[in-house]
Amino acid sequence: MIRRLAEKPLRRKSPVSSLNILRLSLYSAYILQSEKNLSHYYGHSGDLDKRLKEHNAGKVRSTKAYRPWKLIYFEEFLTKSEAYKKEQFFKIIDGYNYLKSSGII
Predict the structure, then answer these.
(1) Is 77:28 a contact under the CB 8 Å cutoff?
(2) Helices then strands (H, E): number in the chain?
(3) For residue 17, is it within any domain?
(4) pLDDT tens track for 26-82
(5) CATH number of the domain to which 30 belongs
(6) d(CA 35, CA 66)
(7) What does pTM read for this prediction?
(8) Which of 2, 15, 54, 103 is 20 to 30 A from 23 (CA-CA)?
(9) Cα–Cα distance between 58 and 27 in angstroms, integer?
(10) Cα–Cα distance between 4 and 54 in angstroms, integer?
(11) How far is the C-alpha of 38 from the C-alpha of 34, rounded, in Å?
């Protein structure tokens, strides 16, 4: 697991990018905040930049009405299932309490 706050830039480079032998594909569990009403949205994606653009373009039904969205937090994982599990954790009371006590939301 790779944990990052959204304010820090992320550089996606494979460890042997000059040889282009191995491509590391990362999956993200993320938290968005609506700039309209300050509500939060929890999700996971294999391409976080593309997914954020979809949210802000109104292509996601559940977030369309609350645009614009800003990325406030994300964590990266090697597998999609790990990212999905973290998204589900964010959505339960223990996850909410963790995010609140950590100052993330």
Answers:
(1) yes
(2) 3, 4
(3) no
(4) 999 999 999 999 999 999 999 999 999 999 999 999 999 999 999 999 999 999 999
(5) 3.40.1440
(6) 8
(7) 0.78
(8) 54
(9) 22
(10) 21
(11) 5
